[in-house]
Each structure stands twice: as structure tokens, then as C-alpha cells.
Amino acid sequence: MADELVHYEVRRGIATITLDSPHNRNALSAQLRRELKEHLTAAASDDQVRVVVLTHTGTVFCSGMDLKEAAGASAGDQGVNEFPAILEQLWTSPKPVVAALKGPARAGGVGIVAACDIAVAANEATFAFSEVRIGVVPAVISVTVLPRLLPRQAHELFLTGEAFDAQRAKEIGLLNSAVPVDGVDAEVRRYTDMLALGAPNALAATKEMLQQERSTNLGEVFADMLKLSAQHFGGPEGQEGITAFKEKRKPSWVPTEG
């Protein structure tokens, strides 16, 4: 549809979700939130989709909540109430999600970047937790951001609202890679090509494992991890992967060109 703000395309097992609301710097308006949720749901439920790429048009990746819509609304009517569901979709997606930024991210936009499994940005991109400077709190995004950041850096950047560049974002754990703007697409493709080699169920289970809270009892942790490991060694994907390795061929889940 010509008036949609988020586009969805699937090619070679890669679902590309594109924020396309440059007139308001890809702010998280009600329409954009709704369409983003719908496309994330579609990607998660499509067996043909192996990896999700979240990208944008225009000069800004995402400027955060739409402040024009927020003005004059009561606490119960704020659009931010819908935002946790989007971050949770990204965080818990059974398909790996790669963020591709060629421009800045602010506030809720940084929360989205943090919720993705892998994030690639242009060197020119900047970031900021600008909430305190307009009298609000970066509360919702803290759920996805704090697990990524070094604690001392989180205190500084959340409290000051200072903008920081892509290189610092990489150093503190927000980004995986910072490259020249004309190299972002190639770097994203490098990651998606690697992710597509992983077995779908194994990738989903590995994501879930990475996000689990672990007991302080080492024996219990080993018991749980042994059960998970054995299930996948003996499962259909594990057996196919082992057979493919022995036969020196690609496993059946690796996408074919075309």
C-alpha cells in the first residue's frame, strides 16, 4: 500500500522490514507501531523466513516515540503503552533479527536497536537517550538496553542524554559493527549469510538459552544444559547436520540461491 509506513519483503529466506516515515524521522507513531508489530508477527510465523533485517528509509533510523501524538494525552493514552510488546517481539523472536542503521537513533529507537540480536550502523550514525532532557524516563527501553551496556556507561548516558557516535556505541556493547555508510548493506549481508547457515530450531533454542536467567547452583545449570544439548544432538536437525557434515554437503535448511 502506498500509504503504509512499514514495508515487508521476503527474499532468499530474509525478511526485510523497512521503516518508511521520513517526514517525522521514523518516529513511533500509532500507525508505524501497528504495522511494525504486524510485520514482526508475519516474519515469526513464516517458515520460509530464516532471518529478519530491520532497516529504514530517510536519514534517521528512528527518533523514538511520536511526541506530537504524545502531547496532551493522559498516562493511560500514551503510545508508549504499546511499545513493550514491540520490544518483546524483537527480543524473543525465534528468528535472529539484524538492525541496519544508516542514520541516528534516539530514545525508543535505541531501545529497538538493543532488542535486536545483531546491530550494524554507519560510522556517521549517532545515538542518545534523550528522555531526561524532555522530562521523561528511559524506563521501557531500559529492559532491552541495560543488558547490552556496561553499567558505568549506562549511568552516564541515561542521566546526561548526551549524544554519542557509532564507535562508542560499539565499544559499550550497543552495536556489533560500525562501518562506512556505503558498507552497511555488505556488512548486514555478511551477518545474514552466516545466520542462514544455522538450523532454525537450533537458532531459536540458542536465543532462548542466551536470555535465560541461570541458577547459582552449577550442578543444576549443567543438568539443564545437558538436557538441552542432548535433545538437539538426537533431534532431527542435529542428525541432519551430523549427516551433512559426514557427507560433506550443506544441511537441508541452508537456503538455496535464487
Automatic annotation (TrEMBL):
Residue stretches spanning the membrane: none
Entries under Pfam families matching the protein: ECH_1
Database matches in CDD domains: crotonase-like
Gene3D superfamilies linked to this entry: 2-enoyl-CoA Hydratase, Chain A, domain 1 (3.90.226.10), Lyase 2-enoyl-coa Hydratase, Chain A, domain 2 (1.10.12.10)
Record GO terms (molecular function): catalytic activity
Similarity section: Belongs to the enoyl-CoA hydratase/isomerase family.
Protein name from the UniProt record: Enoyl-CoA hydratase family protein
Organism: Lentzea alba
